[in-house]
UniProtKB/TrEMBL annotation:
GO terms for cellular component: lysosomal membrane. It comes from the Eukaryota. It is found in: Membrane. The chain crosses the membrane at residues 75-95, 127-148, 178-196, 240-263, 275-297, 317-343, 364-384, 440-458, 465-486, 498-520, 527-544. Belongs to the chloride channel (TC 2.A.49) family. Residues 697-759 form the CBS domain. It comes from Magallana gigas (Pacific oyster). Keywords: CBS domain, Chloride, Ion transport, Membrane, Repeat, Transmembrane, Transmembrane helix, Transport. Its main location: membrane. InterPro entries: CBS_dom, CBS_dom_sf, Cl-channel/antiporter, Cl-channel_core, ClC. It is a multi-pass membrane protein. This is Chloride channel protein.
């Protein structure tokens, strides 16, 4: 490999510029190009610093802390979690109120035109009204997302999962993001897209937590609550973001325990008992706040029976028998198969979008087209599958007549003319004759296809409700089939099979087990179906994993995010640190000249540098030797720390400027550090001044020997939330550096019972 193919950080493996990956030779087929682009690890993502820098300044601050100060900081952590839960509940209430009002208004207008045009033979008018309303609402959401804050698209769960894993996703927890998220999800759901508002609540809760914990805003720079300044670090913010995500789940489903388990199962990189209690507290406050506000909106103040945005309704009178468990297992298999199909189709569609629909204008246009087609499909289903059934007392209050004669109702119109959440509850709880088999089949197919197309649009959207809708529809159809086969038995309950189908389908898509089981149990308010739900979720995951991975993990890998799993793959146990590490390494001496620090920071993109003794850089020697060492290892210093030192001019002729700074100066600069090219030093300072790095470096930074194996390195990174791991030889000489990307570039692909190892290319910008 020639030197032009190397990046400053990665010199032992191939890397390619992002644009170059799309500029292969003309003779290459489109398929080959797609395969190349899939094997690229994006250079857009950096790691977060979850390891505490235990330098002299930190140790001095810790020694000065009194017991009272420690207790105050702990109380402030609980206070932040309280406000996280409170504001998450308020935001959830706002979203729910706006969606309900706008959806009811939309369907009342459409229904008025349908009723009017049945007799006047003007049936194209309701279609135009429906299409116009949907398209207008969705285009607003798409413009906000595609043009102002693209990271607000989708549910946000993959991004938050990456953040908790230790990946710095640009703009993911900004104030601008939550504004676009909240407004966008209201317009998207009201615009009739097959989405839910529950998924975005998880992202919203995480953004709220990140913002409150810092006590200031990058948007409103003059706003600064000094009371929370101790929490201005990646380590502290991570814990609050985990609490915010849990509070979002709690607000969405009224499931505080499920929220805690969601944060644990879906990527929290650090966990202890104290953190679990604080996260549970935030979840409890969130669902309580939503409950109180909903009680006032419903006109029954302090009637605390509205715990979440979406409640599955009561299944108190429903039971199951042991002989039904094989049926539930088969439904779990179906859920895994349908979930794998959904994910694979969405994967193909996402690759197509990344290649051809990559401009804001095209993204807005696609969203509008999907909104129009969704409305058109609904209208066509209403017109051509107009299943009319006689009204009975049990269904009279929840039906829509449209084209049917007096005394009859349209089951298709009934399920279409309501919000997706109400449709799920209707499938769970409506009486036996409410929905015909043809209605369920058509509705299931339409929702499956439209939900698959919709997920990935540049609008805020959730996947929980579409998954539940599809599963509830085919689950109820299974109940109808069983009732047809066994007409005289009493154990066939449509709501029961609808619930099991919903759990199986959603589990087959997202591949969550523990947290999803508890979320569904809390949302139903009944533990009777705990065992069947566990069974179908586990079976759905096992079956789905044979074919592909969960939808969230799939989108993470498509974007080339260097996320680390819970455990290293067993097929990578033979790799050593020497084979994994980046080499050569840029290092600094304990006392380093200002000129060299400036030069290294400007010419290289590293974010961490080993601090060594006895290293003499030789600019004339450009050869790369695998056995090269770079001085005796003494510690690690970050780019962000060096920038603060340069900006504060902590240098002099002898480098002794230790007491000019404290840890507060570094926290005040967090999280946006001044770019190195905006820092100016004179030529005299470059040539004659030194920085004493010893007080500021982390002398306790982790390191491994060059013969350490991949599993040990991986577990250190995953468990401790490391950003850098220095590799030394037996003489404690620095020989390399391991970063997150060095570990994530080994991708193990499993299909059926076969495994293949791919070494991903590293993209540069």
């Amino acid at each position: 490999m020639n030197s032009s193919e190397r990046t400053p950080l990665i010199n032992r493996r191939p890397s390619i510029p992002v644009n170059q990956s799309m500029e292969e030779e003309e003779s290459d087929s489109e398929e080959n190009k797609a395969n190349v682009s899939e094997k690229i690890l994006s250079g857009d993502y950096e790691s977060l610093d979850y390891d505490v820098c235990e330098n002299d300044l930190y140790q001095l601050e810790e020694r000065k802390k009194s017991v009272k100060e420690i207790m105050i900081i702990e109380m402030l952590r609980w206070l932040v979690m309280f406000f996280v839960g409170l504001l998450t509940g308020l935001v959830a209430s706002l979203i729910d109120f706006c969606v309900i009002q706008s959806t009811d208004l939309k369907f009342s207008i459409i229904k008025k035109y349908v009723d009017k045009c049945v007799d006047n033979k003007c049936m194209e008018v309701p279609l135009l009204v429906w299409v116009g309303i949907n398209g207008g609402l969705v285009i607003v959401a798409s413009i906000l997302t595609a043009c102002f804050e693209p990271v607000a698209a989708g549910s946000g769960i993959p991004q938050i999962k990456c953040y908790l894993n230790g990946v710095k996703v640009p703009h993911v927890v900004r104030l601008k993001t939550i504004v676009v998220k909240v407004i966008g999800v209201i317009f998207s759901v009201a615009g009739g897209l097959i989405i839910g508002k529950e998924g975005p609540m998880i992202h919203s809760g995480a953004v709220i937590a990140a913002g409150i914990s810092q006590g200031r805003s990058d948007t409103f720079r003059k706003f600064d609550l000094r009371i929370f300044e101790f929490f201005r670090s990646d380590t502290e913010k991570r814990d609050f973001v985990a609490g915010g995500a849990a509070a979002g789940v709690s607000a969405a489903f009224g499931a505080p325990v499920g929220g805690v388990l969601f944060s644990l199962e879906e990527g929290a990189s650090f966990w202890n008992q104290a953190l679990a209690w604080r996260i549970f507290f935030a979840s409890m406050v969130s669902t309580f706040t939503l409950n109180v506000i909903q009680s006032y909106i419903k006109g029954i103040p302090w009637d605390l029976s509205y715990p979440g945005l979406f409640n599955f309704g009561s299944f108190d009178t429903t039971s199951y028998s042991a002989f039904e468990i094989p049926i539930f297992i088969l439904m779990g298999v179906l859920g895994g198969l349908f979930g794998a199909l959904f994910n694979q189709l969405n994967y193909i569609l996402t690759k197509f979008r990344r290649r051809y629909i990559n401009k804001s204008r095209d993204r807005v246009l696609e969203a509008m087209i999907v909104a129009i087609i969704t409305a058109t499909v609904g209208y066509i289903s209403l017109y051509f599958n107009n299943s009319c059934s006689p009204m009975v007392q049990d269904t009279k209050d929840n039906t829509v007549q449209v084209y049917c004669n007096d005394g009859q109702y349209s089951s298709t119109a009934t399920i279409l003319f309501q919000s997706p959440e109400d449709s799920v509850k209707s499938l769970f709880h409506e009486s036996k004759g409410m929905y015909s088999p043809s209605t369920l089949v058509v509705y299931c197919l339409c929702v499956f296809i439209l939900a698959c197309w919709t997920y990935g649009l540049y609008v805020p959207s959730g996947l929980f409700i579409p998954g539940l809708l599809v599963g509830a529809a085919w689950g109820r159809f299974v109940g109808l089939c069983l009732n047809y086969i066994f007409p005289d038995v009493g154990w066939v309950d449509f709501g029961k099979y609808s619930l099991i189908g919903a759990a199986a389908q959603l589990g087959g898509i997202v591949r969550m087990t523990i947290s999803l089981t508890v979320i569904i149990m809390e949302a139903t308010g009944n533990i009777t179906f705990g065992l069947p739900i566990m069974i179908v979720l586990i079976v759905a995951k096992w079956v789905g994993d044979i074919f592909n991975e969960g939808i969230y993990d799939m989108h993470i890998h498509i974007q080339g995010v260097p996320i680390l799993g819970w455990e290293p793959s067993s097929v990578l146990t033979n790799l050593s640190a020497k084979e994994v590490m980046s080499h050569p390494v840029s290092v600094f001496n304990m006392r380093e000249s200002v000129g060299r620090v400036m030069e290294v920071l400007k010419t290289e993109t590293h974010n961490g540098f080993p601090v060594v003794e006895d290293y003499i850089p030789n600019p004339l020697d450009s050869s790369i030797n695998e056995e090269m060492s770079f001085g005796t290892y003494r510690g690690l210093i970050l780019r962000s720390q060096l920038i603060v030192l340069l900006k504060q001019r902590v240098f002099g002729d002898n480098g002794d400027q230790f007491y000019n700074l404290s840890t507060k100066d570094f926290r005040d600069a967090y999280p946006k550090f001044t770019p190195i090219r905006q820092i100016h030093v004179s030529q005299y300072e470059r040539d004659n001044c030194e920085i004493n790095l010893e007080p500021y470096m982390n002398p306790a930074a982790y390191c491994v020997t060059d013969n350490a194996l991949f599993p040990r390195i991986f577990k250190l990174f995953r468990a401790l939330g490391l950003r850098h791991l220095v590799v030394v030889d037996k003489h404690h000489q620095v020989v390399g550096m391991v970063t997150r990307k060095d570990l994530a570039r080994y991708k193990v692909t499993r299909k059926f019972w076969k495994a293949r190892i791919d070494e991903l290319l590293m993209s540069t910008r």
